[in-house]
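Students often ask why we bother encoding 3D structure as a string. The short answer is that it lets us treat folding as translation between two languages. Here is a chain of 185 residues written in the first language.
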Amino acid sequence: MSTHGTERGTGPGTDQDWERRVAALWERFDAHDPADFRERIAELAAERPEDDAAALFERGAAHDSTGLPEEAVDLYRRALDRGLTGLRRRRAVIQLASSLRNLGRPDRSVELLTAERDIPADRLDDGERALAGAVDAFLALALADTGRDREAASLALGALAPLLPRYNRSLAHYARALLTAPDGS
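And here it is in the second language, the structure alphabet:
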């Protein structure tokens, strides 16, 4: 992780300290009204350089989580353009795609999430791989919004299959079969 002008470590003014304070604020999300939460995130973001990708992402997520997806879209795009990496990058893609879908742009959401889904697992870290199901779930929503219901159901059921205590193989098989079976069967 880049230090963005701060020292590495755990003391005040370090990346780890900033990350800890951001995480602590998110843990208390429900204790704040939306405007207050966005303001507190903005204060933390202001501690970083203006074009800091992580700070832009956190501001985007705060706007998104408090009902302002239009503002979030711009912040997510800026964070990605500034080279956001790792788990935050994957979260930004998922959240950007979800916001675009909610704003009536499901085709763009499908494009983003399909590209994200196509990244080989060996190019992702453990945290990014852990969000594979989220990529599939939000892609399924976007596919449904574009009228591609069978693909959406197949994707959602395929993502669910490994989580079941039984019937994993059967459900995975039936999920794949949705893509080849004629409609109405």
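Translate back mentally: The chain is about 65% helix and 0% strand. Keep this in mind for the problem set.
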